Amino acid sequence: MALRLFSRAVSGITSESQHVNHHRAFSVSAVVSAIQKMTRVRVVDNSTLGTTPYHRPPRVIHVYTKNGVGKVGDKVLLAIKGQKKAAIIVGHKMPGARMTPRFDSNNVVLIEDNGNPTGTRIKVPLPTQLREREGDFSKVLAIANMFV
Predict the structure, then answer these.
(1) Strand pairing of 107-111 and 42-43?
(2) Which of 41, 85, 114, 132 would give a disulfide with 106, using CB separation of 3.0 to 4.6 Å?
(3) pTM higher than the cut 0.70
(4) Range scoring the smallest mean pLDDT among 21-25, 100-104, 122-126, 136-140
(5) Rounded CA separation 110/116 (Å)
(6) Is 60 buried (19+), middle (13-18) or exposed (0-12) by CB count in 10 A?
(7) Can you tell me the mean pLDDT for 93-110?
(8) What is the average pLDDT value for the chain, to the nearest integer?
(9) Are 36 and 69 in contact (CB under 8 A)?
(10) Which residues, listed in sequence order, are joined to residue 78 by a DSSP beta bridge?
(11) Quick check: 117 and 139 in contact, CB under 8 A?
């Protein structure tokens, strides 16, 4: 009797362990967002605030869109060197639509409250889709020297 109960218990454990071992080999989570809160970014203009070294990288603390995910051309609020500064996204790592460039880092250009860029040069190429996008990017496009 005891042997029969023991064998049932052991067979129950092995059948449960066989059931548990069936895991999916791929992820079923959502697609990684482009730029959202707490994303580390790289300032690509030659402003003094963006070029001087600091022990913490700049981070996004707010994205000015309805869904909280920033793409190229969206405005964000950065925490940089203990200050809050507005910036425009000019490139991100996440692949976008067809025929849009994908960058090695999340690039932003610092802007002032009136929309003027803080720096006088942009060090990296900008995507050409900024030209077609609605909004006042004319001053940012004017200080850029390369487009992809």
Answers:
(1) parallel
(2) 41
(3) yes
(4) 21-25
(5) 9
(6) buried
(7) 90
(8) 84
(9) yes
(10) 60, 85
(11) yes
Q: Is 86 helix (H, G, I), strand (E, B) or coil?
A: strand
Q: Partners of 103 in the beta sheet?
A: none
Token code pair at residue 132: 């077609």
Q: 121, 96 in Cβ contact below 8 A?
A: no
Structure tokens at 7: 């064998």
CA 132 centroid distance within chain: 22
At residue 6, the 3 state secondary structure works out as helix
Cβ contact 68:62 at 8 Å: no
Neighbours of 42 (CB within 10 A): 16
- Which two three-digit tokens encode residue 145? 């020297």
Would you say 105 and 42 are in contact if contact means Cβ atoms under 8 Å apart?
yes
